[in-house]
Amino acid sequence: MGIVRSAGEVRSFLGSPRRLTFALILALVSAAATVVVPLLLARITDLIFSGVVGARLPAGTSPEEAERILRESGDGDLANIAAKLGAQPGVGIDWNQLWVAALYVGVALVVATATRIWGGLLVNTTVQRTILGIRARVEHKVHRLPVARLEGRRRGEVLNAMTVDVDNFASVIGPVFVHLPVLLLTILAVAVALVMLSPFFALIAFATIPVTAVLAVVVLRLAKPHMERQWQTTAAITAHVEDVYGARDMIATYDGCGRTANEFDRLNERLRQAARTGQTWSASLNPVLTFLNAIVFVIIAVLGALRMLDGAVTLGVLQAVVMYTQQLASPISELTSTLPKLQSGFISFGRVRAFLGETDEPGTAVDDQTILAPGRHRLPPRIAFEDVHFSYDDTPVLQCVSLELTAGRTTALVGATGSGKTTMTSLLQRFVDPTAGRITIDGQDIAELTRARVRSKLAVVTQDPWLFTGTAGENIDFGTHDGDVPDTSMIELLLEGLPSGRDTPVSGDSDLLSAGEKQLLTVARALASDPDILILDEATSAADPRTELVIGRGLDALRHRTTTLIVTHRYSTLATADSIAVLADGRIVEQGTAAELLAAGGEFARLYGGE
């Protein structure tokens, strides 16, 4: 029942692609032609055998007289066979009927082969197109998840959902839409044909079905927890490798290679045990079924020969019974070998569906179309935090924060670690929304704007610069809007600090560039985006004095036409701000210039009085 329920869930998840429906029709035609073949072959066998037996009977006698002669001569078995076949004494093989029957067999085989090949190609094509769409949905989902939701997950787990789980899920699409229905209908058709040919032999062939069903249910139940552990551990290994690769320099520094290797060995051993146990249970079905089918085949062969000699069945019927018994065993065996694979695929399907079912960002998401307002940057925006409250899991972070960022001016946030500085920048970027209160840009609540609209106004330079693999120029172009770069001279000045300028190879997770060079590049990208609002979160923390000077010149080129929010601990950076807001315990406790705050002798003076 679990497999059937999961199959139904896959159908509802994907809908019913028309190509797969057509492939199912082709597969049913192929199965029907295959089921008909034994009947046609039985007809050919009976025609040949009837001709051979008839040629041995005395010519010119009637069938009844020939049968009496055979019995009187002690050849009762041949008499029974001749009577069952309806052999005509002295008449050999009817070649006309034989050729017609052979033609039908040839047509049936051609139809079965052609539809099977065509249907297989159609299934493969449709499955790949479907998986292409699912990968696109997973990628699309990543951009619609709240940023905080992704920050709480290991990157390797998301990577595993987008690759390994999707690929494994692909293995269930064809069976659910095509193979399972065809197998079940083939079993039904063969069973009906067997009953029509010989109820006696049909009962013998059906004897293995309940045994097979019980074994399949037991094996699937025993294998399922091990398969679930296998795919959970696969995701954990992917995440572990991703973590180790991203932090390989720190692992080497702290001589942690042994510990990470031990963790990998533990996960690897857990995966081996889960895969071995699950596959052992799954693989145990086929040998048992093969043994049962062999016993059934021997019983049918022996009893069939005896009944043929008794005149109960013809040789053709016996041949058809044997072929149908094999045809019945084949789909049952294929079904039982497919079920564990389906179970494994359904586990991955559940993981993919759970990922796609996670809650999107409320309101319009980040990837919706951005419509830029005309006349950008003529007037930098005024930003206001109005009585803003925010909590993480019922833990207050910001309480009654009111702060105005004057248009075209630079405002700095300072405070002890955990005071809420980065939370305020996250609120402005709409990575999270206030628990209470509001944030406005030129008087408009950003909650009323799409996230794409809000973020199109922003450029952000953080302490941990984000870069993707490519060249420096490609990373800079990532921040441009329609190729419009306002200050190429300043960007070129920033790029002078890179080994090969715009052509410098870049990789976010490697040491191709120093931390200071990476920050140079992120500042150049911010400059290329020509933003309305600039957020600097410890933007010069990794820079040496010379690089900091170059970065400062680049940021000065932006500040005169943006509203800038700075989060920093460096007094030299704070001294350049037009206003400084001091955060403590989630509240703004002081605000003013650096000189005014030092003179006031409050929290700012406590933090920077020694500068």
What does this structure look like?
There is one protein chain. This protein folds into two domains: 2-356, ABC transporter type 1, transmembrane domain (ABC transporter transmembrane region fold, Up-down Bundle); 383-608, Rossmann fold (3-Layer(aba) Sandwich), CATH 3.40.50.300. 64% of the residues lie in helices and 11% in strands. The chain contains 23 helices and twelve strands. Helix 7 (155-162) packs parallel to helix 8.
Name the average pLDDT: 75
**Major sheet strand order:** 6-9-10-3-11-12
SS element count, helices: 23
CATH superfamily of the largest domain: ABC transporter type 1, transmembrane domain
How many strands?
12
Largest sheet: 6 strands, mixed
Q: Percent of residues in beta strands?
A: 5-15%
Fraction of helical residues? 55-70%
Q: Specify the CATH architecture of the largest domain.
A: Up-down Bundle
Could you name the ranges where pLDDT drops below 50 across 5 or more consecutive residues? 370-377
CATH topology of the largest domain: ABC transporter transmembrane region fold
Radius of gyration: 39 Å
Question: How would you classify the helix and strand content by structural class?
Answer: alpha/beta
Q: Report the span from N to C terminus.
A: 72 Å
- What characteristic shape results from the CA principal axes? elongated
CATH class label of the largest domain: Mainly Alpha
How many domain units? Answer: 2
